Amino acid sequence: GGARKVIKLGTMVHSMAWNDETNMLAALQDTKLVVYYFPNAVYVDKDILPKTVMEKDATEFGKNPQIVNFLGNHVIIRRADGSLVSTGVSPYPSMLHSYVSNSRWDDAVRLCRFVKDEALWACLAAMAAYAKDLNTAEVAYAAIDEVDKVQYILHIKELPSKEARSAEMALFCGSPQDAEGILLQSGLIFRAIQMNINLYNWDRALELAVKHKTHVDTVLAFRQKYLEKFGRNEKNKRFLQYAEGVEVDWQKIEAKIEMENQKEREKAASARR
Question: What letter does residue 234 receive in the DSSP assignment?
């Protein structure tokens, strides 16, 4: 993928420290001590980020406390008078990190079932989506009642090729450029065009169709259908230009789409042999 974009995790942070063993972050935000069990969730699924966080009242640490370090399951804080205090964090998130970093997904699921904590399930959902482990992601998202995401993961699991599944997971994690790159690199040109149509990236869909000399009529047809739905006329010069020389025949387009799907299924089947 390209350069990773910078996303704000929280505001009014005046002290922070990374855990010495795992990818966890402790921060003093305003009057709270906040522990981000899996900060990478912000790149995977921002919706569930708040569920992967532990918050504690920090007023007990007095004015202007500073986090000295975050060792294991303990956050060490220095008060304004110089005295050090330690506050505990659940040991389960670090255990989950250990299982996931060693790809022990079954153990990770067992741990979450044992602990029965939404924060842990939410972490596992984001971790599994990040690692593109669809089975674990499905179980974890179901456990936190994210029905729409479970349905989307089930749709991804039904895709014929590994490349298509990887691209859809990149899309799921909010990286359409990475998804397109995976598809183009794998020669799945139509799927890349279709993805841009589904995202209403009309200019990019037409650009790919023209560049690869395929499915220009498909892009024009879906664009026409989209505009008709909203009662609008075409004003995009490129679309007007190509519409002049291309006939839109839905029967032919649907037959071509089915042929593309069949070709992908056959390619995936031969790759499994």
Answer: -
